[in-house]
Amino acid sequence: MTVRDEIEQLKQEKNAVILAHYYVPPEVQEIADYIGDSFYLSKAAAGLGQQTIVFCGVSFMGESAKILNPEKKVLMPDARADCAMAHMADAETIRRMREEYEDLAVVCYINSTAELKRHSDVCVTSANAVGIVKALPNRNIFFIPDRNLARFVAEQVPEKHVIFNEGFCPVHEQMSLVEVENAKAAHPDAEVLTHPECPEKLCRMSDYVGSTSGIIQYAGRSSAREFIVCTENGVRYELEKRYPEKRFYFTDTEPVCRDMKTVTLEKVLHVLKTGENEVTVSDLVRKEAKKALERMLELAR
Ligand code: 13P
Ligand code: SF4
């Protein structure tokens, strides 16, 4: 039996479902029941019938699934797969900001620990951040942890006062403007599609800035036939599968999230077999963090 067959069999036996982010390796995306960006996956996780969720992604994703499904078993194929940005804010700064601004809303990018979500008013993902910040009654917004997504939101919602926090995604932050310009010189007809976790200069020269699913949808509706994609290279699999007639280029140094790439078929099989790497979130943290996640799901409806 192949590893894939074994996974399929165990999934049935254990009443399990597999969720995967677009950034995990293609062979893992292939066996997933749900593949998507962070927003799609959090919505999916909120309404699953199965008893066990195998989350092919990084720890904040598994934590969010557990917070929304406390009675279910959430397993991470690699327990060490983490998002560096998820830790780049702190409760003490949030407390100080709340003291300083009476009407403050703490808006927490879902790429954050459960502990940070717990101190926040609402979660957002890159797919819904602009709409949710717009919909909030508060004028003062402390946006954690990502300064790049915060800047993108502030530009789209000028009526709000957005206070930045100095977090960033090391993968998107390090994308080189020169390499994108080189790619553009090599493919002058290509449109540049960029994730809002990228630095300002890169967003400014882009034809489209949006979440992973936004990029995928834009590539479908655009009349262009070539694209330079400025986000993690795992998204290539879905782009090429959906639009085989179009061409997708990345920068010479391809953006790779090492943590997302630690997820393998063998590790998926292992956790299905053993039940290891179960996500746990304390009751106190879960109850408080759940409010911010549920508010996102409500406001994004
Ligand atoms: P989205 O899934 O919201 O596009 O975010 C990308 C990301 O960095 C996930 O970790
Ligand atoms: Fe975190 Fe960046 Fe990896 Fe996404 S790509 S999981 S934001 S480190």
From TrEMBL:
Pathway: Cofactor biosynthesis; NAD(+) biosynthesis; quinolinate from iminoaspartate: step 1/1. Its EC number is 2.5.1.72. It holds the Pfam family NadA. Its cofactor is [4Fe-4S] cluster. Keywords: 4Fe-4S, Iron, Iron-sulfur, Metal-binding, Pyridine nucleotide biosynthesis, Transferase. One of its GO terms (molecular function) is 4 iron, 4 sulfur cluster binding. Gene3D superfamilies: NadA-like. This is Quinolinate synthase. It comes from Candidatus Mediterraneibacter stercorigallinarum. The lineage of its organism: Bacteria, Bacillati, Bacillota, Clostridia, Lachnospirales. The gene is nadA.
